[in-house]
Amino acid sequence: MRLMIGRLTLPLLTALMAPTMLNAQDGGQLHGNFSTDAQYYNEDEDIGAVVPAQRLAANAWMNLIYTNQDFEMGGRFESYEPRLAGYPAGQPYLGSGIGYRYAKYRMSDLEVTVGNYFEQFGQGMIFRSYEERYLGVDNAMDGFRVKYKPYRGVYLKGVMGRQRFGFDNGLVKGAGVVRGFDAELNLSELLDSAWTCAGSLTLGGSFVSKYQEDRDPLLELPENVGAWAFRANYSTAKWNLYTEYAYKINDPNGKNGFIYKPGQALLVNATYSVKGLGASIGAHSFDNMFYQSDRAPPTPLDLNINFLPPLTKQHTYNLPATLYPYATQPNGEVSAQGEVFYKWKKGKMLGGKYGTKLAVNFSTAYALDTTKLGIADDTTSRLGYRTNFLTPGKRHYFQDFNIELRKKVAEDWEFALTWLNLVYDIDIIQGKSGKSTVYADIFVIEGLHNFNDRNSVRFELQHLSTHQNQGNWATGLAEFTFSPHWFVAAMDQYNYITTAPAEEAEPERIHYPIGSFGYIRGGNRFQVNYGRQRAGIFCVGGVCRQVPAANGLTLSITSTF
After folding, report:
1. CB of 258 within 8 A of CB of 279?
2. Which of 393, 415, 418 is nearest to 404 (CA)?
3. Which residues of 358-386 are buried (b: 16+ CB within 10 A; e: fewer)?
4. By the 8 A CB rule, do 150 and 109 touch?
């Protein structure tokens, strides 16, 4: 039945949307986008390149959205024939078909969606349905959602359905059912003229429950697992203060060893901003917060109901972003981050003619302070451990101290200098059992030169030094832009010094060159890459997937209409 529905959905969408293209008098609009990434894989024994049996792999997506006044409907066709090596992060994707389809209408203060949808309660600590296309993370809900505003400042949401689990010639759903309700109250809107405070206070609360039948022959597992959260956000012209607390009842699952301990999470953030100065500080504590609609999914990236936001800087430079990025540890971590941004004004001693920008960031993450419970009886052992919830443990997972200085030195030249100091428990974060903690320093020089209003060159020189893991790395990058249509880029990475432990064979010192060029016109973008891809980690927002080593030709096309 699922395959039949998948085959019928696209013709149905096309039939419904076609009249709009032929006759625009009804006010309806059709828009969408298309994207594809295709790669031809070469053999390369030096880097251990992954070569699929078909040698040519491609991922492709096309979205169509039709809107007419208060009505909207859309769908997404997906194709993985076969999927790119290492994609997606979780359950494998196979074949071609409809992976997302929905219909939505608004009537006064009521909005109803049926089919697939993405939604989030608060910061997502008990519910976040979202997509990160290039990670291959997609836990879209399939069911219905209702939003209602009964009075000014009062916002209600209700959701029910099953999550996207994978793709096999169409959408594949998980076994568990997810139900949730969220309420938010904006006091400044509600009280209107009676609200005399200079700021705005918003309060919110959520409840989410998952249902999965208990078929375990040995354990009595809860079939309904509930979680609730409360949040408060206060903001003024300069300040924003946010806190959220979440609690989850006992949820025995494959990630916590089927223990019956409840989970909880606390998140606190504060930001301050005025012209030329910005500062932020945040902290969180997570304990036993894996929350998936299946007790034993294939990977930690499948069927996640919630999202635990990281408190680490999301770097864009190649070496820190792909060698040692941090991934949130849902089973237990205590983390903190602070950042200060300052801009010296033009004409001042440190500002110079064009001004100077300085950003300092520090983040750290520790294991949660826990005490493992003994096996005096079965009840005690099934509780797993005792927690000092807000106290960091002895094991240091991660630390990142970085400073960035950015300055324009002439009308056509701008430079940025960045230094990062990292502490990285690769055993815990990447699952490399027995490997030593990595201590690394990274230096980056970035420059931008504008030849004229249309042509420019940007370059990066990166260097990473460490005595652990793979040793030292160097990266060079140059990008030439010929506006408005063309760009050309070249990059090389080199593991030029390796300090392998005595018991391991010394790895080869290998270059990873890659070149690319692209063409942009209107809503269309074409890019071709050729070269080597180093095995590493690709992360977005604290969620990561392994990227295998590869050698070959890649074509990317994106189009929006």
Report:
1. no
2. 418
3. ebebbbbbbbbbbeebeeeeeeeebebbe
4. yes
Q: Most confidently modeled of 3-17, 308-322, 366-380? A: 308-322
For residue 32 the two structure tokens come to: 């969408």
The C-alpha atoms of residue 406 and residue 354 are separated, in whole angstroms, by 11
| Residue carrying the six token digits 């990281």 | 310
Helices marked H in 97-222: 187-191
Give the amino acid at 541. G
Closest by Cα among 444, 443, 335, 339 to 398: 335
d(CA 543, CA 531): 26
* Dist. CA 552–CA 249, nearest whole Å: 49
For 174, the 3-state DSSP assignment is coil
Q: Let me know how long the chain is.
A: 561
- CA-to-CA distance for 460 and 478, rounded, in angstroms? 7
How many Cβ atoms are within 10 Å of 23's Cβ, its own excluded?
9
Note the pLDDT tens digit of each residue in 39-69.
999 999 888 888 888 999 999 999 999 999 9
Q: How distant, in Å, are the alpha carbons of 120, 129, 139, 248, 521 from that of 226?
A: 16, 17, 19, 6, 50
The answer to whether residues 400 and 422 touch, using CB atoms and an 8 Å cutoff, is yes
Q: Is 20 helix (H, G, I), strand (E, B) or coil?
A: helix
Residues 6+ apart with CB under 8 A from 53: none
How far, in Å, CA of 224 to CA of 252, rounded?
11
> Is-cis flag, bond preceding 88, omega within 30?
yes
Q: Region 7-11: what's the mean pLDDT?
A: 48
Residue 432 to residues 2, 334, 373, 424, 552, Cα–Cα distance (Å): 39, 21, 26, 12, 28
DSSP letter (8 states) at residue 91: S
Residue 413 sits at the vertex; the CA angle it makes with 412 and 416, to the nearest 5 degrees, is 150
Q: How many other C-beta atoms can be found within 10 angstroms of the C-beta atom of residue 198?
A: 10
Q: Structure tokens of 324?
A: 């040692």
pTM of the model: 0.89
H/E element holding 169?
none
Alpha helices in 349-471 (DSSP H): 378-383, 426-430
Beta bridge partners of residue 454, listed in sequence order: none
CA distances from 316 to 165, 366, 428 (A): 29, 24, 23
Say how many Å lie between the first and final Cα of the chain, rounded. Answer: 33
**CA–CA dist 301, 88 (Å, integer):** 10
In the numeric block, which tokens belong to residue 79?
A: 């194709």
Contact 37, 58 (CB under 8 A): yes
Tokens 């005490």, located at residue? 371
